[in-house]
């Protein structure tokens, strides 16, 4: 499996978009990657549509240097995640080290709060287009945008090309 030596960290918080977390997690695992769910507390979080996610490690316990990629799912979770200093620090670590960052839908809020979008070409749900451009990003309405190590996508129907782009980038 082409990602058998890769480790991926995925943020979790209440009201994550179920498909935007689980589709990438499962596809990356099928490709051989080890995926770790990280959140503020060690507990079971629930997605917008009721799908549970059990946390593997807490934000205070995780060492981002152990991972090759970061996944930020959408839903309403990003609005909560961006309030945690640890989330901002972890996101900045991945950006500074030019490690893969995958963000979809409302996940752009986390990257905005981490202040890493200046001059980056991205997409997101159109609902946060203004937020993205006000953060200095170049926003485009396409299924997937890859700008260096940042891979962005709009919404659940775009998940197949989004996760393929992440897998391909990790396999390089």
Describe this protein's structure.
- The chain contains 6 helices and 11 strands.
- Helix 1 (18-30) crosses helix 6 (159-171).
- It is globular, with a radius of gyration of 14 Å.
- The chain has a single domain, classed as Class I glutamine amidotransferase (GATase) domain (Rossmann fold, 3-Layer(aba) Sandwich).
- Helices cover 32% and strands 23% of the residues.
- The strands form 3 sheets. Strands 5-2-1-6-7-11-10 form a 7-stranded mixed beta sheet, sandwiched between helices.
- Helix 1 (18-30) links the parallel strand 1 (7-11) and strand 2.
Secondary structure elements and their pairing?
Elements: E1 7-11, H1 18-30, E2 34-39, E3 44-46, E4 52-54, E5 57-58, E6 69-72, H2 77-81, H3 85-96, E7 100-104, H4 108-113, E8 121-122, H5 129-134, E9 138-139, E10 144-147, E11 150-153, H6 159-171
Parallel strand pairs: 1-2, 1-6, 2-5, 6-7, 7-11, 8-9
Antiparallel strand pairs: 3-4, 10-11
Helix pairs in contact: 1-6
């Amino acid at each position: 499996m082409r990602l058998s030596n890769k480790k991926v960290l995925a943020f979790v918080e209440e009201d994550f978009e179920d498909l935007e977390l689980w589709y990438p997690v499962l596809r990356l695992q099928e490709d051989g990657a080890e995926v770790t769910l990280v959140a503020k507390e060690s507990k079971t979080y629930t997605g917008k549509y009721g799908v549970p996610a059990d946390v593997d490690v807490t934000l205070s316990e995780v060492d981002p240097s152990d991972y090759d990629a970061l996944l930020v799912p959408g839903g309403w979770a990003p609005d909560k995640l961006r309030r945690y200093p640890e989330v901002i620090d972890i996101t900045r670590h991945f950006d500074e080290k030019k490690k893969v960052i995958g963000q979809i839908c409302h996940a752009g809020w986390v990257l905005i709060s981490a202040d890493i979008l200046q001059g980056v070409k991205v997409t997101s749900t159109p609902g946060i287009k203004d937020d993205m451009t006000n953060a200095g990003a170049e926003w485009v309405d396409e299924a997937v945008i890859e700008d260096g190590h940042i891979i962005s996508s709009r919404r659940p129907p775009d998940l197949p090309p989004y996760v393929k782009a992440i897998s391909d980038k990790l396999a390089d």
